[in-house]
Amino acid sequence: MTTRAPETDGRRSAAAARRRAREAEILAATRALFDERGVRDAQIEDIARAVGINRAIVYRHFSGKEELFALTLVGYLEELRRDLEAASVAGGTAEERLARIVTAFVDYSLAHPAFVDCAQTLMRRSGPELLDEISESALFRLGRGISGCLAQLSGALEDGVRSGDFRVQDPTLLANTLYASGLGALQLARVGILVMEAAPGVPTVGTISHEQVRDHLVVSALALARGR
Question: Locate the HTH tetR-type domain: which residues (predicted)?
Answer without folding.
Answer: 20-80
